[in-house]
Amino acid sequence: MVGIIYGSSMGNTEEVANFISENLGLENEVVNVSDADADKINGYDKLILATSTWGSGDLQDDWDAFDFSGLSLSGKTVALFGLGDSESYSDDYCSGMGKLYDEVVKAGAKVVGGVSTDDYTFDESEAVRDGKFVGLALDAENESDKTEARVLAWIETIKSELA
């Protein structure tokens, strides 16, 4: 089973998590990180983790309060997506996803689903490694018209890794 764990303050990340769940075509469960702990997350075979970015590149509040020390993701496949504001916060667009990436890599996860930065407009992001986003970057404020197509294309790239 694939666990889709998200942190959402305004509802946008939750909305995308549910859209992914509906379109993934795999058995999955959608859980707000505020209702999860490390043991619950460790119990999934494969994961999709999501966060929005707040302030100057910070994790969403529920993820920020999460105790990552108990995560044990060795040998597990994890895909990430993040939401940010590429216009107002162009200097740290989706940087929360980069922080989440660092935590899951430290916990031993194999991260899949990196996305090219082409077709994105921003200045800097902690979520960019080796020239690609570490997962799917979305902007519900300024590029909501691109969200559905980006999500559906991303699902196709990760589906086989999560099956």
From TrEMBL:
GO terms for molecular function: electron transfer activity; FMN binding; oxidoreductase activity. The keyword Metal-binding does not apply. The keyword Isomerase does not apply. InterPro entries: Flavdoxin-like, Flavodoxin, Flavodoxin/NO_synth, Flavodoxin_CS, Flavodoxin_lc, Flavoprotein-like_sf. It holds the Pfam family Flavodoxin_1. PROSITE patterns: FLAVODOXIN, FLAVODOXIN_LIKE. It comes from the Bacteria. Its cofactor is FMN. This is Flavodoxin. The gene is fldA.
